[in-house]
Structures are given as structure tokens and as C-alpha cells.
């Protein structure tokens, strides 16, 4: 079977399975619509650590260990770890996973990192280079605000286009075809950078929406399908504004996603009561929503097939302060129900 499809998609001859998944979410996130479905809830977003970065690292370790446990495995059974966060030099990941003693591929795809991690992990298992890997991503409101915007004590005003960085970590264990699991990964579509010239770091949904559009279109073209092949097309953190832009772009292409589209950044908070403006964002946004709300529906067969498309805005404090634009990227992962496998 030829596994390369079109320009950017791999359709697996031996679809890996998601053998276990775990979500750890912050206090605000736990008070939102998805709160009852998270595995662990933080009563203190600081996790009684000396600083916010240490707290995010602790979330990563907790999520990884819980996912491995839920998969019925031990640390020694995991060949590789694919993980990342939003911080410079991936300090949440590097400090958080050191005690796991699992060989690490540290990844940075901004808020698209969970899609990147799952894509690479599935490729590794499908190719036979590993029996089990962990794919994981995290973010923390306080660490992201400190790095990308202003110290929290500054108390700056947030425009309505701004998103709220999710405090959370999601982790999945990916295993070989034939094992029991929650769902299977049948294909991945790797996104490319799309730069429309956006410069507003407080409106990242607008910067990322064209990248999501490109990846979705590429996936459908490569696989020779239309949007109705999926029960849901799930973006990472476009929020309210980015989601509207995506739907408009798809409509111009003759595709109607109005009944198929779900955005993790829209779903994770209650717009009316939680004052998160455009919605949620951050590496942890798509990761925890996948583990808590998407995989259970696939496992139960409520959805047969979804396209999971985490989205990222590839900016840094350096590039922003130099006046550079904000390119976007999105990675697609096709996840299916395992009935009859």
C-alpha cells in the first residue's frame, strides 16, 4: 500500500491506536463546560511550586504518568516522548519530563504542537520504530502571559479579540495496530506555514485561520474526499473570530462546515460567564479537549471519523518586537472509531 497521499498526507498501512489518554486542567478550565470530563483538576494553578513554570512542568509529568497508567503500561514500555509547550527552549517540557527517563523529541509548533506530536508519534509507530510512544502538549496562562505579553500584576486591558491561554496538559499513548484502545489514527496531514501579514498578537485567531483552511483543504484534496466524510472537523484554538474566518474561507471554496466544525478554544470556556473574550488558546487547549471530550465520543462510536486540526501562531517576543508578521500553521490528524478492529 502506498502510504504517501498527495502533497502532504500519509495514510497509514497499519493505523496506530490511541491506547490511553489523560487530561490535567487548571481551576478556570475545570469550571467551564468540559470540567466534568477532565481527569485531574487543579485547585491551585501554582501546584504549590515556587513559580508558574515549575507548575506547568509538574502538569506535564502528571499527565504523562496518568496516560501511561490508563494504557496499562509502565514507563519502560514507552520508547519515545514527543512533547512541547509555549515557553522559550521548551523549559516546561524539559524540566517536567526529565524524571520520566524517556527519550525525548522536544517540539515547538506553538498551539499546533499536539497535532505535530501525534503526527510524528503515529509515523514512528506505523514505521515500526517504536511499539509505544507518548505525545503530549501543555500551556499555562501565567507562564504564557509572562513571556508573550505583560506581567500579570500589570493589569493591562485585553481587547475582545484576545484569547485566554489554557492552563492544562493533554497526553496520549500511541501503540501498534491490533492493540485495544480508544481510537485509531488513520492518516496525518502536515501543515505548512501560511503568512497573511497579520501583526496583531491580540488577535491570533485571525492569523491562524488561513493555515487551518489550507491544511483542511490539503487533507481533503490528498485523500480525495469532501468535508462530509468527517463527522467533525475540529480546530485547535481559533476562537470565535478565527472560527468565523475559517467558515467564510471554506464557504468561498464551496464547502459548508457550519454543522461540522468544532473549535476547542470555543468549547473549553463558557463565553457568557467566564470572561475569556474570543475563547481559549495555548498548546494545552487542543490537547485537553481532545483527551477529555473528543476521544470518548470516538470510543463510544458517537463519531466515526474526525479531522483534528490544532492551530498555531508562530511568533516570539523577539519577532513581535522587531515588527515581524505572525505566520500560522496547522497539522491535521485523522482519528477514527475502532469498531471491528
From TrEMBL:
Gene3D superfamilies: Stage V sporulation protein AD. It holds the Pfam family SpoVAD. InterPro entries: SpoVAD (IPR010894), SpoVAD_sf (IPR038369), Thiolase-like (IPR016039). It comes from the Bacteria. Transmembrane segments: none annotated. This is Stage V sporulation protein AD. The lineage of its organism: Bacteria, Bacillati, Bacillota, Clostridia, Lachnospirales. The gene is spoVAD.
Amino acid at each position: 500500500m502506498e502510504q504517501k497521499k498527495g502533497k502532504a498526507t500519509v495514510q497509514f498501512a497499519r493505523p496506530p491506536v490511541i491506547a490511553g489518554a489523560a487530561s490535567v486542567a487548571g481551576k478556570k478550565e475545570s469550571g467551564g463546560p468540559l470540567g466534568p470530563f477532565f481527569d485531574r483538576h487543579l485547585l491551585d494553578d501554582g501546584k504549590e511550586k515556587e513559580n508558574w513554570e515549575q507548575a506547568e512542568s509538574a502538569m506535564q509529568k502528571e499527565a504523562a504518568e496518568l496516560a501511561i497508567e490508563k494504557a496499562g503500561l509502565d514507563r519502560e514500555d514507552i520508547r519515545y516522548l514527543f512533547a512541547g509547550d509555549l515557553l522559550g527552549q521548551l523549559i516546561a517540557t524539559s524540566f517536567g519530563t526529565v524524571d520520566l527517563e524517556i527519550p525525548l523529541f522536544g517540539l515547538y509548533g506553538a498551539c499546533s504542537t499536539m497535532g505535530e506530536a501525534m503526527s510524528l508519534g503515529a509515523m514512528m509507530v506505523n514505521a515500526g520504530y517504536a511499539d509505544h510512544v507518548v505525545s503530549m502538549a501543555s500551556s499555562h496562562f501565567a507562564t504564557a502571559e509572562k513571556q508573550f505579553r505583560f506581567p500579570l500584576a500589570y493589569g493591562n486591558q485585553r481587547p475582545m479579540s484576545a484569547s485566554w491561554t489554557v492552563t492544562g496538559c493533554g497526553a496520549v499513548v500511541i501503540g501498534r495496530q491490533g492493540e485495544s484502545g480508544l481510537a485509531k489514527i488513520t492518516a496525518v496531514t502536515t501543515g505548512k506555514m501560511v503568512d497573511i501579514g497579520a501583526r496583531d498578537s491580540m488577535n491570533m485567531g485571525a492569523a491562524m485561520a488561513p493555515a487551518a483552511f489550507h491544511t483542511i483543504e490539503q487533507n481533503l484534496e490528498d485523500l480525495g474526499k469532501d468535508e462530509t466524510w468527517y463527522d467533525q472537523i475540529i480546530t485547535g484554538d481559533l476562537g470565535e473570530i478565527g472560527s468565523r474566518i475559517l467558515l467564510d474561507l471554506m464557504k468561498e471554496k464551496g464547502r459548508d462546515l457550519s454543522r461540522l466544525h468544532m473549535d476547542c478554544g470555543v468549547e473549553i470556556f463558557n463565553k457568557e460567564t467566564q470572561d475569556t473574550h474570543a475563547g481559549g488558546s495555548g498548546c494545552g487547549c487542543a490537547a485537553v479537549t481532545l483527551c477529555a471530550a473528543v476521544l470518548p465520543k470516538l470510543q463510544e462510536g458517537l463519531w466515526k471519523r474526525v479531522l483534528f486540526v490544532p492551530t498555531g501562531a508562530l511568533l516570539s517576543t523577539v519577532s513581535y518586537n522587531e515588527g515581524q508578521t505572525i505566520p500560522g500553521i496547522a497539522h491535521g490528524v485523522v482519528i477514527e472509531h475502532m469498531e471491528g478492529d
